TrEMBL record:
This is ATPase. SUPFAM superfamilies: Bet v1-like (SSF55961). It comes from Streptomyces viridiviolaceus. InterPro entries: START-like_dom_sf. Gene3D superfamilies: 3.30.530.20.
Length: 165
């Protein structure tokens, strides 16, 4: 059977979202944003300050209209890689399976960086593919706007990188 028509292969591919954006800022400045758990919980614009507290090793981000979101840091490799487990939302508690959100910051020739994000593990959110595909759909669209918000925030608050010929 051809993988292009194999429903299991199609679902496996949908288990993750991968997006990227070029940002005209140094890796260290992008890192300052990416390392903040849940910076992408916003209304389309990254806040300079967020309502963030810690309960042990769990970061709790409170958004005024969206509620509380909980994250556990999985790995930090400054300034290139950060991974967080999205463990609780207003829609799921910490006992519910969660997704992994990973960020990579890659320097570009000529200056600036490419910020890549992969969110994976959607198929573990529910036994019924229709249920987890619905959640994935919202996040798929969301990452496009969140990466654009990250770009605007970081470029606004950082000097442009030096371009090399």
């Amino acid at each position: 059977m051809d993988d292009a028509t194999d429903p299991e292969a199609e679902l496996a591919e949908l288990d993750r979202i991968a997006r990227q954006i070029d940002i005209d800022a140094p890796a260290e400045r992008v890192w300052q944003l990416v390392v903040r758990p849940g910076w992408y919980i916003n209304d389309g614009e990254v806040e300079a300050e967020q309502d963030l507290r810690y309960e042990g090793d769990v970061a709790v981000v409170r958004h005024p209209s969206l509620g509380e979101f909980r994250f556990r840091t999985v790995e930090l490799d400054e300034p290139r890689y950060a991974a967080f487990r999205w463990i609780g939302t207003p829609f799921r508690d910490e006992a519910t399976p969660s997704t992994l959100v990973e960020f990579w910051i890659d320097e570009r020739d000529g200056g600036g960086v490419t910020l890549r994000v992969v969110e994976s593990g959607f198929s573990g959110l529910a036994d019924d593919p229709a249920a987890w595909l619905k959640e994935r759909e919202g996040n798929d669209k969301g990452w496009l706007s969140e990466l654009a918000a990250a770009k605007a925030f970081v470029e606004k608050s950082a000097p442009a990188p030096t371009r090399h010929s």
